[in-house]
Amino acid sequence: MADLAALATKLTDALPGAIANHVLANGELSITVEPGDIVRVMTCLRDNPSCEFKILVDICGVDWPQKAKRFDVVYHLLSLTRNMRIRVHVLAAEGESVPSIVSVYPAANWFERETFDMYGVPFSDHPDLRRLLTDYGFSGYPLRKDFPLTGYVEVRYDDEIKRVVYQPVQLVQEFRDFDFMSPWEGAPHILPDGTRSSSGNPGRKA
Hints:
With 206 residues, this protein is an alpha+beta fold. It has three helices and eleven strands; from the N terminus they run H-E-E-H-E-E-E-E-H-E-E-E-E-E.
């Protein structure tokens, strides 16, 4: 903890105005950085002899729909020589770009693409920013809190036109309505008196 507290002080001195906030909790140091300063901060964390965070472990996103700065882009760094880890947060509003750090950590390439694919956070100056885990025709960003569980479209192979096509999601019923009176097709139906009926589906709406 003492080493991390000393590191927070050194970073604040080495990067005046760049670190908006830092928190030391549960044996971990987290710093918050403005988007425009992320490349400078990451370069310092990698090259400063007091840091030597040579390994970018991961980049992920967090969605806070109620906040003006809706997204946290979170970077996890590891220093083997110092035996320390640090977490860097960048706050971004809807549609706000975050500068790419691929020039500092080449491993950020696919991490940034994944964050863009899952949350829709764009990274400026990225060498090849496109979807990574979903396909080219995918609609929406799956890890946002407002993304529906069913998605928007489903994919199937059309044997007549010999290619994959997209179509609106088709469900047997609206499965978000858990009233215990409308089970899936073929599931036992619980009658109001508590008895079971496995024939038909009397609770299903036409």
